[in-house]
Amino acid sequence: MKKIYLLIALIITLFSVYPAESGSAGDEHVLEYLIAEALQNNPEIMAYSRKVEAFAQRPSQVTSLDDPMLGITMANLPLDTLRFDQEAMTQKLISVKQKIPFPGKLGLKGDIAEQDLAIAGQEYDEAKNRIKANVKSAYYDLTFVTRALEITKRNRLLLAESLPAAETQYAVSEATQLDVVKAHIQLSGILRKQILLDQKKETADARINNLLGRHAREAIAIGDFVPTAMTHSQEELTQAAESSRPALKALNLKAVKAGLLHSLAEKEYYPDFDIGVSYGQRDDSGAVNRPDFFSAGVSINIPLWHRNKEGRKVAEEKAGIDAALQQYEAMRNDLIFQIARLSAEIRQLEREAELFKTGLIPQSSISYETILSDYKLSKAGFLAIIKSQIERSDYELEHYRLQVDREKKLAELEAVVGQKLY
What's the CATH number for 2-65+101-269+306-417? Predict the structure, then answer.
């Protein structure tokens, strides 16, 4: 009997469903730090930032006039003598020409460039939201696999420390050889599970490092897990998405840009102007004083081929407006679906987690206590206690996984809505 109680004490001492937390910071603070680092160093985010900077240079370019043209010409120079004073019409000409678009064209081009800049800004915000969601998802994956590793190691330690006592019991005929063999098989299964979890943890660390723009494979510290509250209704989420989702805003801006392109295409029916002035200098011939010449002129383009060019361009941009509006409506409808899907999945995870919390976990604890009592009365083998403990820890871990999966769905929902929800 003394050996039995020693084995029971060993099991109770070594086994704990949740190990002591090593982190002192909560998930929220750790995540804030990781997200801030990702938004600063992630290559994709940096690329979008540079894209915005590039588009910011366009408005002033497209609203400026083309460079004026300076011309220098020798006109009517006689080839027989190559003298500038022989013929009265020989001149040395200096001319300046400037192209001036029809009024309104430059303004429309500037408005289009401003829309491109605004679209790039929304795409930048969309990328930041996507990276935030990815960091959260990767972090919660790491949180779960870290917890699973801790529990698996404790299960392994429990079995490893219990085996000598079980073998001693077998030696004195207080346990069967089958119990000992099954215990060794159970231990091998736990060791294999630990190997797989070690690999998953390395992958999770590498994924976060990649999102943070780190080149080295650094271990990521995790904080204390605290489930977040979610109180928004599906209708509130839909309204928030329609007003906040950067990708949806970008499509709306593209529809506005398409309208501006259509207006600019209609403006192409109107001519541009080439305004030029020239000065012609003539050399005097003997007693003849030849005055210099001054010339000025305006030329315009004639849309002679408007049916094949300008007219087609107007039709093209009109179709672009319709396409942009349809893309906006398609994404809006998809947002409504995504919000409904994620809300349903979150509710399902919450119900499952509640089932584990109020049903399976307490029931597994009752089962463990029952088997422990039977073991004391020699009605159950020690392996039954081990299996009951592991089963209880598996239920606790599954409950934790459901909570983690809920956090990942919440992160995905935030990205869909386009704003912080909690």
Answer: 1.20.1600.10
